[in-house]
Amino acid sequence: MPTVTALTRTTLLDGTGADPVPDATVLIEDGRIAAAGPSASVEVPADAEVRDLSGTWVIPGLMDANIHLVSARTPDTLLEFEGRYDELALEAAEIALKYGLTTVFDTWGPAAPLLAAREKIDSGERVGARFFCAGNILGLEGPMSEDFFKTGLTFEPETKDRINAIWEVGCGTDLISMTVDQIGEAVGRYIDSTGVDFIKYAASDHRAEGFLLFSEAAQRRIVEVCHDKGLLVQAHTTTVESLRMEVQAGADLLQHPDITGPTPIPEALLEAIVDRQLPCMSLMVTERYLEWLDEHKPQQAAVRRVADRNNRAFVERGARVLNTTDAFAYGQRVKNHAGFRPGLLTDDVPDMPTQIGRGHFLWIQAAWERGMDPMEILRSSSAHIAEAYGKADRYGTVTPGKAADLVVLGADPLAAPESYRSIVAVLKDGVTIDRDALAQNLLLADDPGA
């Protein structure tokens, strides 16, 4: 079997921002890009497998800067799949890869099961999107808590504590009552004991109030510890002040900075974010979804409209915006649960943005609607994410030396956002993925394209 593959007669969009290359050849050797450019300038070895891709466009493998692979989000599913959360992560990673996401970043989940699932993907035992993870949002409790799902008096404390501990690993809400030095020590222990790839902490809470959780000194210490350990750090924020504190603390990425409650981002803070080109993982949603919220969920619509104002400002000012969905791989059982996002996960909600395998396409459409340059949309869904997470040396562009993560499209992605859905083929590390074999016999999720 040849180890060299030549993809020929395609139009190449390499993710660097360079102009499209018509009649291009991409040469893949041992899972990496050996050459990419005009066919006349790429020498194809005699023993290469040649694939004629006439009428197609080749782009870098797509990425999502913020998803959640473990889809057990309700008390019944958390209990049923206890000890098997890695299986849920694997099926979500399959769905992601099937729809062109070759690399994703999990920003909240149980670290040990996620790392177990990743080992199966990295070893070749299972097929799925490559992923990097943070584990818990430091300062928040696990999924059976007021921070995520109000279980009331249904479960005894020991049961809730057992499930939550799988997420928290010693860095739940206990952190917020510690001294700055104690917080730093706890974060260091968390990093050492879990082996996570980056850190996400809660600058504000995950409830309706948006209370600040950590002082500025505590946030700076969290960032210092992460940087000393060689990890990038981001924060969950929901208010203008929590966002300002995250920026002042020196966070490397801004998690959903567009969500600032009823108050738009002040000019001085917006200018600082843009000038420093801090990566903005913005939860952009389509106009159709906003209009639905206006009619059916006016309170949530008000917050989303402010977020939309922030996102339009990011686009107009040239901020570094990343494709971000906050998606998970949910199915009918989660949709049926009256206590989980009531009225939002039903099938009649148009353009629901939080489903793995579908959300990244809707984000692209939303970015298009907000006037983002089509080439910048492509880069915000690939190269910019790799750069933001410190992975640009290996992923994000179709350039020599990078992993051969590619999506082959049947339509021009610079012409219309719908083109991203016209997937002809997905390659990860140079291997063409059998998309029809993915997302079969799902445990909890639905295949969004089925």
Descriptive report:
This protein is of the alpha/beta class and 450 residues long. It folds into 2 domains: 4-60 and 396-434, Roll (Urease, subunit C, domain 1); 62-388, Metal-dependent hydrolases (TIM Barrel). Helix content is 33%, strand content 18%. It contains 14 helices and 18 strands. It has helices at 75-80, 85-98, 111-122, 157-168, 180-194, 216-228, 240-249, 267-275, 287-296, 298-317, 332-336, 359-369, 374-380, 383-388; strands at residues 4-12, 21-29, 32-38, 49-52, 57-60, 62-68, 101-106, 130-133, 137-138, 199-202, 233-236, 253-255, 280-282, 321-323, 327-328, 406-409, 423-428, 431-432. The strands form 3 sheets. Strands 1, 2, 3, 4, 5, 16, 17 and 18 form an 8-stranded mixed β-sheet that branches. Strands 9-10-11-12-13-14 form a 6-stranded parallel β-sheet. Strands 8-7-6-15 form a 4-stranded parallel β-sheet. The longest helix has 20 residues, at 298-317. It is globular. The two termini are 33 Å apart. The model has no long low-confidence stretch (mean pLDDT 96).
List the helices and strands and how they pair.
Blueprint: E1 4-12, E2 21-29, E3 32-38, E4 49-52, E5 57-60, E6 62-68, H1 75-80, H2 85-98, E7 101-106, H3 111-122, E8 130-133, E9 137-138, H4 157-168, H5 180-194, E10 199-202, H6 216-228, E11 233-236, H7 240-249, E12 253-255, H8 267-275, E13 280-282, H9 287-296, H10 298-317, E14 321-323, E15 327-328, H11 332-336, H12 359-369, H13 374-380, H14 383-388, E16 406-409, E17 423-428, E18 431-432
Parallel strand pairs: 1-4, 1-5, 6-7, 6-15, 7-8, 9-10, 10-11, 11-12, 12-13, 13-14
Antiparallel strand pairs: 1-2, 2-3, 5-16, 16-17, 17-18
Domain Amidohydrolase-related: 57-430
Protein name: Amidohydrolase family protein
Organism: Georgenia alba
